[in-house]
Amino acid sequence: MGIKRFFSLSNIMSGIMTIFLVLMLVNPSVKAAVMQGLMKVGLFQPGVTEAETVEMEAAPDMAFSDGNGNSFTLSSLRGKVVFLNFWATWCPPCRAEMPSINTLYKKYKDDKNVVFLTVDTDGNYKKAKHFITKHKYDLPVYVADSRIPGELLGKSIPTTVIISKSGKVVYRQEGAADYGNDKFTDYFGQYIRK
């Protein structure tokens, strides 16, 4: 009689929920998967406005490097629209938004007016590149080759910044967002066509 109560549906469900919650707390991949699911149902949408968006201040300069030791500055990209994403491999919200960033990247990767910079904030290029390769993303990986200005990266990751062709910050989002949806793709495209 006591054993039947122990294995009741209520106790089994409680056990499963407890295990799930523990996994969410200790495993970044589980948390990222849950966030990706929430993105697919419409949560975590980036806050975008219509085409009459007003440009903000000029983006401060900083340097980046790739895995081959090639270095360049943000100011050297003037004339191109820059999608700049600061992230880390251990960050569940960063992991959650990567598929949507990859979707946006695939759409614009051949456009000579666009540059995607996914910047590992830990400065560990090999680890970041391994993560991108393991998950079969096409995204280019960079690390900061100078101090990261607070105007670009605030107090949390992921942080995404869009810089217009004229070098102005036109979008900044702290926290995960779905950058692969049609509304954001249209928003991003308006800066490329300008």
Per CATH, what is the topology of the largest domain? Glutaredoxin
Second CATH tier, the architecture of the largest domain: 3-Layer(aba) Sandwich
Radius of gyration: 20 Å
Strand elements, count: 7
* Alpha-beta content class: alpha/beta
Major sheet: size, sense and barrel closure?
Answer: 7 strands, mixed
How would you sum up the global shape?
elongated
Q: Quick recap of the structure?
A:
The chain is α/β, with parallel strands linked by helices. It contains 6 helices and 7 strands; from the N terminus they run αααβββαβαβββα.
Which features does this protein show?
194 residues, alpha/beta, Glutaredoxin, seven-stranded mixed beta sheet, 6 helices, 7 strands, elongated, Thioredoxin-like_sf, Thioredoxin_ResA/DsbE_sf, cytochrome c-type biogenesis
Walkthrough of the structure:
β4 (114-120), α5 and β5 form a beta-alpha-beta unit. The chain is of the alpha/beta class and 194 residues long. α2 (9-26) crosses α3 and α3 packs across α4 (92-108). The radius of gyration is 20 Å and the shape is elongated. The chain is built from 6 helices and 7 strands; from the N terminus they run αααβββαβαβββα.
Secondary structure elements and their pairing?
Blueprint: H1 2-6, H2 9-26, H3 28-40, E1 63-65, E2 71-73, E3 81-87, H4 92-108, E4 114-120, H5 125-134, E5 141-144, E6 159-163, E7 169-174, H6 182-193
Parallel strand pairs: 3-4, 4-5
Antiparallel strand pairs: 1-2, 1-5, 3-6, 6-7
Helix pairs in contact: 2-3, 3-4
Main location: other
Protein name: TlpA family protein disulfide reductase
Domain Thioredoxin: 53-194
